[in-house]
Design brief:
- Helix content is 0%, strand content 50%.
- It contains no helices and 8 strands.
């Protein structure tokens, strides 16, 4: 997992994918926006992994991301690139609900 900030995303409109500098060789396949109240954890069913990278952009709130059981704090403006095979979960803490954008990536066609 890599922790970045929104300002680290260097792609420009018309120049290619916004994540090109953070995750070269991949483009967005699909995504969405999720909201969690304080104390809620994503993927409560247990282990959650993907075969391709996934990114999370924290739009509101704070908490921590669990990667293979280890927690890293986050706040609005942080971006995480979760590598394939990493078990990952976001946990919302604080007074504002966590709002995050998640993006599943796929290899760039070439």
């Amino acid at each position: 997992m890599r922790k970045l900030h929104l300002s680290d995303l260097t792609g420009q409109a018309g120049d290619g994918p916004v994540l090109a500098g953070a995750v070269p060789g991949f483009v967005v396949e699909r995504g969405g926006v999720s909201r969690y109240l304080a104390g809620e954890r994503t993927h409560p069913e247990g282990r959650h992994v993907h075969a391709v990278p996934e990114t999370f952009c924290i739009l509101q709130g704070s908490g921590y991301i669990e990667i293979d059981g280890a927690g890293t704090p986050f706040q609005a403006g942080d971006v995480f690139v979760v590598d394939p095979g990493e078990d990952h979960h976001l946990v919302s803490e604080g007074t504002l609900p966590l709002v995050s954008m998640w993006l599943h990536l796929q290899p760039e066609a070439g």
